[in-house]
Write the structure tokens for this entry.
Amino acid sequence: MTSTLFAQAPAEPPAQGPQGGPNSPMFMFFVIGLMLLFWVVVILPMSRRQKKEQEQLIATLKRGAKVLTNAGIIGTIVSAKDGEDEVVIKSEDSRLRIKRNVIVQVIGTDEAEATAK
């Protein structure tokens, strides 16, 4: 009986298809290429645009503007000199010296604060 089983076995292994499955190195390079393409097309331009908008926001800061910091503090700019990296804001009864780059949004202007010191 064993001799008949060996006699019926094929002499050659079956031919395999092209090597393109998820375990192949080409598939890995394809996935890495797609991630790189996504980064170049989507993420890089978005980060450049955000950086440009932040620089424009920082450049337009002036006295009397109500601002929001990245820590969630809302205050009015009391002192902002060109060329300096710090501004002084007033929030309720306190004055804070902060860096310009922590300001994330200009909420509006406070006309009373802009005219009074």
Q: What stands out?
A: Residues 62-115 form a domain with the SH3 type barrels. fold (CATH 2.30.30). The longest strand covers residues 74-80.
